[in-house]
């Protein structure tokens, strides 16, 4: 295995981008991440992005987004119709092949332009479930109730998770919501999709994020303390909700095991949990110790940019390692109904 | 017993509030004023029209606005013979990639006012606008391009774009 | 810098995408949808013995092909295994008044599936509730041949 590290991370999030198109959102993020990487743009050998054209309703929108990168002279480029975290996985594999030593990875989404509830309903079984058009909040709520009724937690545990994330988000300039409410205050609010309340559901927004990766010697030559990717794996559960035990997340358990989360201490965990109960299920699945700082950014509850949020989790862990604030952390990304698909990435400083 | 169900129809309808962004909004507002606005790359000086706010070659924002002429040269073309409910031109007709005078990249539009077999690369054309009172922030404010009657342009003036 | 940069807002337009998808079913789902057209529920037995509804074409654990010999009729009544409440239905939803989404485990099945429950009010919903399907007048082979489930008589 080749050593691969995150050199830099940049992000942009807003509740709603009503003025800028995707290129106008992406370009400053891409310029910032390249400038911070220590590499010249011409030294970056591979570009990989994650996005979904359905979010903006424009077929092949990801091709237009390349305007933000500068695809001339022609560059080596690839795209995944997934969160940028999976684009990072592809770039990591590309570096492993030895074909390239560096990569730019980005993810972007502008879901406020469309009806995210309807669009996410299209990720469900198109024969038997999409024609009913359940909202993503409802699908998550089915899992939340199953989790509560299994005895693993309560509505109070959900509110505790939300309160902690909202308090943490106060120091994150990229958070869309934050708050200082007590658990009892949160519990007094109405349901959005019982047993979930608004604060148990994601603060959806528009934005982009980007990461620059480099292999061993190149990373060491430009960074005093790169954030090394020590393990990365992604796994998927069956799509049908009924064939899974919704109170646990087996694909995340397996990905965490393969990525080697438990091999050493964990200082920080950034978990892609747009719904409160998901953080609890994933914390257990990933084996995050109680001593770890979980979602110090405020997590996906406080800023959820589809197709970028998972890459942001990796970036949030990486930047704390780059700065020396943390030595070892785990980042997680998810896709699909009720945590169907999960990616786990373990990062370490020297 | 019923007939076996071999397929099902699952219609999808999605509504969006679309914005073309800042640069293209300015281009479309220019069109409503009978102007074609491009944006110049501060690095390579290429003029993009319609502008999307960036130079895709240099990956830098484009900010300086320049007026581009509503006349230009046919860089390449295609004859359309397939009907579509979105198209109101009589078949067959030519669509063309047109390098507007002052622009750095060609622009897509429809040619009218000549038989399809007369269309050729290098042909000089001019925009035919809708009447002033019907001008709006839409590319449809230019009805089509028609031959300008000028002599054909030399290949060197547009060959880079073929 | 262009004039009016600070004051002029970007243009907006409504943009609609429509896809009139027709999806072919194949030998297994064909039986499920033909079953619905006959007001019956068809499931399939997986390799571990569980009965799955809708029937699976491939085993969710072993990935082995599950043939037509695995098909088995289940239901039509069942129980709610988890649920949530929709206070404000959209035009795309099966009901135009508040209703529940539920995972419903049909009698004889081991895996629940999603459908709507017309419970009257949220306080009437609970996990374990026995429900039965309310069919449309002329079923045609669609998951929406079931209008919704309702409390068992």
Give a written overview of the molecule.
The complex is a heterotrimer of chains A (350), B (162) and C (153). With 350 residues, chain A is of the alpha/beta class. Chain A is built from 13 helices and 13 strands. In chain A, strands 1, 2, 3, 4, 7, 8, 9, 10, 11, 12 and 13 form an eleven-stranded mixed β-sheet that branches. In chain A, strand 12 and strand 13 form a beta hairpin. The longest helix of chain A has 16 residues. Chain A is globular and about 55 Å long. By secondary structure, chain B is mainly beta. Chain B has two domains: 50 residues, no CATH class; 93 residues, no CATH class. Helices cover 7% and strands 39% of the residues of chain B. Chain B contains one helix and eleven strands, in the order βαββββββββββ. In chain B, a hairpin with a 4-residue loop joins strand 4 and strand 5. With 153 residues, chain C is mainly beta. A five-stranded antiparallel β-sheet of chain C has the order 7-6-5-8-9, with no helix packed on it. A three-stranded antiparallel β-sheet of chain C has the order 3-2-4, with helices on one face. The radius of gyration of chain C is 21 Å and the shape is globular. The termini of chain C are far apart. Chains in contact: A-B, A-C, B-C. Chains A and C meet through helix 6 of A and strand 1, helix 1, strand 5, strand 6 and strand 7 of C. Strand 1 of chain B pairs antiparallel with strand 1 of chain C, so a sheet runs across the interface.
Radius of gyration of chain C: 21 Å
Number of strands of chain B: 11
Biggest β-sheet description of chain C? 5 strands, antiparallel
Continuous helix count of chain C? 1
* Major sheet details of chain B: 5 strands, antiparallel
The share of residues in helices of chain C is under 10%
Instruction: Kindly report the greatest chain-chain contact and the residue count on each side.
Output: A-C, 35 and 43 residues
Question: Could you list the spans of chain C in which at least 5 consecutive residues all have pLDDT below 50?
Answer: 1-6
How would you sum up the global shape of chain B? globular
Strand order of the largest sheet of chain C: 7-6-5-8-9
Secondary structure category of chain B: mainly beta
Q: Give the strand line-up of the largest sheet of chain B.
A: 9-8-7-10-11
Tell me what portion of residues of chain B adopts beta-strand conformation. Answer: 35-45%
Task: Name the helix and strand elements of chain C from N-terminus to C-terminus, one letter apiece.
Answer: EHEEEEEEEE
Q: What gap, in angstroms, lies between the N and C termini of chain B?
A: 62 Å
Question: What is the oligomer described by this structure?
Answer: heterotrimer
Q: What is the approximate shape of chain C? A: globular
């Amino acid at each position: 295995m080749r050593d691969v590290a995150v050199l830099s991370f940049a992000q942009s999030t807003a509740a709603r981008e009503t003025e800028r198109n995707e290129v106008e959102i992406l370009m400053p993020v891409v310029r910032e991440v390249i400038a911070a990487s220590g590499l010249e743009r011409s030294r970056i050998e591979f570009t990989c992005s994650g996005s979904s054209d359905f979010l903006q309703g424009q077929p092949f929108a990801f091709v237009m987004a390349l305007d933000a990168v500068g695809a001339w002279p022609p560059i080596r480029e690839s795209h995944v119709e997934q969160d940028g975290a999976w684009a990072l996985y592809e770039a990591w594999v590309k570096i492993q092949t030895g074909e390239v030593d560096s990569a730019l990875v980005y993810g972007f989404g502008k879901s406020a332009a469309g009806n995210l509830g309807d669009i996410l309903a299209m990720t469900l079984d198109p024969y038997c479930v999409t024609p009913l058009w359940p909202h993503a909040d409802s699908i998550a709520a089915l899992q939340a109730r199953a989790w509560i009724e299994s005895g693993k937690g309560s509505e109070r545990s959900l509110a505790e998770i939300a309160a902690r994330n909202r308090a943490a988000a106060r120091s994150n300039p990229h958070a869309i919501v934050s708050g200082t409410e007590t658990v009892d205050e949160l519990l007094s609010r109405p349901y959005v999709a019982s047993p979930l309340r608004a604060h148990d559901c994601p603060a959806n927004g528009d934005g982009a994020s980007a990461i620059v990766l480099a292999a061993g010697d190149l990373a060491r030559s430009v960074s005093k303390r790169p954030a090394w990717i020590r393990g990365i794996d992604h796994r998927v559960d069956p799509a049908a909700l009924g064939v899974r035990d919704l109170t646990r997340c087996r694909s995340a358990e397996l990905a965490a095991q393969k990525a080697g989360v438990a091999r050493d201490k964990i200082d920080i965990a950034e978990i892609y949990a747009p719904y409160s109960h998901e953080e609890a299920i994933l914390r257990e699945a990933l084996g995050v110790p109680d001593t770890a700082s979980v979602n110090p950014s405020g997590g996906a509850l406080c800023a959820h940019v589809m197709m970028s949020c998972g890459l942001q989790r990796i970036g949030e862990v990486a930047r704390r390692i780059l700065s020396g604030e943390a030595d070892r952390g785990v980042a997680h990304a998810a896709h699909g109904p009720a945590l169907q698909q999960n990616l786990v990435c373990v990062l370490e400083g020297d | 017993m019923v007939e076996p169900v071999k397929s099902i129809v699952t219609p999808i309808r999605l509504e969006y509030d679309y914005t073309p962004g800042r640069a293209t909004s300015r281009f479309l507002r220019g069109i409503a004023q009978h102007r074609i606005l491009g944006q110049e790359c501060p690095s390579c000086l290429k003029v993009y029209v319609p502008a999307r706010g960036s130079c895709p070659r240099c990956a830098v924002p484009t900010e300086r606005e320049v007026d581009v002429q509503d006349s230009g040269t046919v860089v390449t073309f295609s004859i359309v013979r397939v009907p579509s409910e979105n198209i109101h031109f009589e078949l067959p007709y030519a669509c063309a990639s047109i390098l507007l005078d002052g622009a750095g990249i060609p622009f897509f539009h429809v040619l009218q006012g000549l038989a399809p077999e007369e269309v050729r690369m290098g042909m000089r054309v001019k925009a035919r606008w809708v009447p002033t009172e019907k001008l709006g922030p839409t590319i449809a404010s230019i009805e089509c391009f028609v031959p300008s009657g000028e002599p054909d342009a030399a290949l060197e003036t547009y060959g880079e774009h073929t | 810098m262009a004039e009016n940069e600070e004051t002029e807002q970007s243009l907006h337009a409504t943009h609609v995408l429509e896809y009139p998808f027709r999806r072919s079913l194949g030998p297994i789902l064909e039986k499920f949808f033909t079953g619905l057209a006959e007001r019956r529920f068809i499931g399939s037995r997986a390799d571990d013995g569980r009965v799955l509804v809708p029937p699976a074409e491939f085993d969710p654990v072993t990935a082995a092909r599950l043939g037509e010999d695995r098909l088995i009729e289940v239901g039509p009544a069942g129980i709610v295994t988890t649920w949530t409440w929709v206070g404000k239905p959209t035009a795309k939803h099966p009901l135009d008044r508040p209703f529940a989404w539920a995972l419903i485990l049909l009698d004889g099945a081991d895996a629940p599936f999603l459908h709507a429950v017309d419970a009257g009010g949220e306080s009437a919903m609970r996990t374990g509730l026995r429900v039965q399907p309310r069919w449309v007048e002329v079923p045609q082979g669609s998951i929406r041949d079931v209008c919704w489930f309702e409390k068992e008589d």
